[in-house]
UniProtKB/TrEMBL annotation:
Signal peptide: none annotated. It is an enzyme of class 2 (transferase). This is Hexosyltransferase. The keyword Cell cycle does not apply. GO terms for biological process: protein O-linked glycosylation. Keywords: Glycoprotein, Glycosyltransferase, Golgi apparatus, Membrane, Signal-anchor, Transferase, Transmembrane, Transmembrane helix. GO terms for cellular component: Golgi membrane. Belongs to the glycosyltransferase 31 family. The keyword Transferase applies. It is a single-pass type II membrane protein. Its EC number is 2.4.1.-. InterPro entries: Glyco_trans_31.
């Protein structure tokens, strides 16, 4: 992405206090000097931040164990990028090669729950990410940024949250036994992948959703469950804050929230990827449902949803399929404007790449984020959250 937000633009628009904070940011992130575009797609910001880490490391020795949040952010960033580069230059190449290989799968190659992730007994939020077998680097980027609670940068008193959370990836099986074996090894190493015994295709995404419902019911019953895709960035700390507020005031009311789609017409063209036969669903329009890029629902609904999945025919439109389950159990979706706000744009700035970086601070979920962009977006949002006046005058 290009031209999301330039430091020069922020300097012109920032208030006096925002300007002071921006200067503070430039010192710690080593952004002083060449004020080139501050974008999500370019790794220049990461490189400039990494360049200043040696100074921070030396300062840590002389100053003792106490470090500012920005220093910790900078130190953590170096380790994250090194791990990302290492994976992309080694393991990812094996996944890429294996994804091009197809063979006839025998029974011994079929993978179903081969490695079940562990789950805390009193989990507040479970995040389930739909992922494709070959997309290792998307999973790795999520693990290195917003996807893991044990990342140092996602911890600390500044988050003001005592709610636990965990991310798992839902993956089907490939036509390549070599790729299946790689995913199986990855699942054993990271213990965060749930593997289903079905082909990982677009038309089988509803099976992946059903896999998540069944697995979470049997192995990880959290207070709330959030479903998203591997090409979506989740502002998990803000999501936790929003859910915590909801839980304090409306915790007894079942929740099903997201970017609600209404009066969505059922596709009857058989060659279309969203085709649904009249035998599976006869009406011309789907009932309201939350868009599949990101929605959240109460974990207490899992038993009812599992029963609904046995009554309601499964259709190959995964978010609408869950909407049918919710309708069956009498739960209506609630629209949240912070979830996927840039999927349907009403203004002229329809491209994600044309939005200022400051527009990524408030959304809980943003679609269209892949690979390294997960890491960059996560760190940029953390910086903006730490110094909110930077964006105070950005429209």
């Amino acid at each position: 992405m290009n031209k999301l937000c330039s430091i020069r633009f922020l300097l012109l628009l920032a208030s006096f206090s925002g300007l002071l904070n921006l200067i503070y940011l430039m010192v710690f992130a080593d952004l002083k000097g060449n004020l080139e575009l501050y974008t999500l797609s370019s790794s220049s910001v990461l490189r400039r931040q990494i360049a200043s880490i040696q100074v921070d490391s030396e300062a840590r020795v002389s100053a003792g164990p106490s470090l500012s949040y920005l220093e910790l952010l900078n130190l953590d960033l170096k380790d994250v990028v090194q791990r990302y580069v290492s994976s992309s230059e080694t393991v990812a190449k094996h996944y890429e090669a294996a994804s091009l290989q197809e063979d006839n799968l025998s029974e011994q190659h079929k993978l179903a729950h081969t490695s079940v992730p562990s789950c805390p007994s009193s989990l507040f939020l479970l995040i389930m990410v739909h992922s494709s077998p070959a997309n290792l680097m998307d999973r790795e980027s999520i693990r290195l940024s917003w996807g893991r609670e044990d990342n140092p940068i996602n911890q600390g008193s500044w988050t003001n949250s005592d709610r636990s959370w965990k991310t798992v990836f839902l993956v089907g099986r490939s036509n390549s036994s070599r790729l299946n074996n790689l995913v199986n090894q990855e699942a054993r190493v990271y213990k965060d992948i749930v593997i289903g015994d079905f082909h990982d295709t677009f038309r089988n995404l509803s099976l992946k959703t059903l896999l998540g419902l069944q697995w979470s019911l049997g192995h990880c019953q959290a207070k709330y469950i959030f479903k998203t895709d591997e090409d979506c960035f989740v502002n998990v700390l803000s999501l936790l804050e929003w859910l915590q507020d909801y839980h304090m005031t409306n915790g007894s009311t079942p929740l099903y929230a997201g970017n609600v789609q209404r009066e969505m017409e059922v596709v009857r063209v058989e060659t279309h990827r969203y085709y649904v036969s009249p035998q599976d669903f006869n009406p011309y329009f789907f009932p309201p449902y939350a868009s599949g890029g990101g929605y959240v629902f109460s974990g207490s609904l899992l038993p009812k949803l599992a029963k609904a999945s046995k009554r309601v025919p499964i259709i190959p439109v995964e978010d609408a399929c869950l909407g049918l389950y919710m309708q069956d159990i009498g739960v209506n979706p609630v629209h949240n404007r912070r979830i996927l706000p840039y999927i349907f744009c009403d203004d002229t700035r329809t491209s994600l790449s044309e939005r200022p970086i400051c527009h990524f601070r408030e959304p809980l979920v943003v679609h269209g984020i892949n690979d390294l962009l997960h890491i960059q977006t996560h760190y940029n949002v953390l910086l903006m959250s730490f110094m909110p006046t930077i964006c105070s005058n950005v429209p």
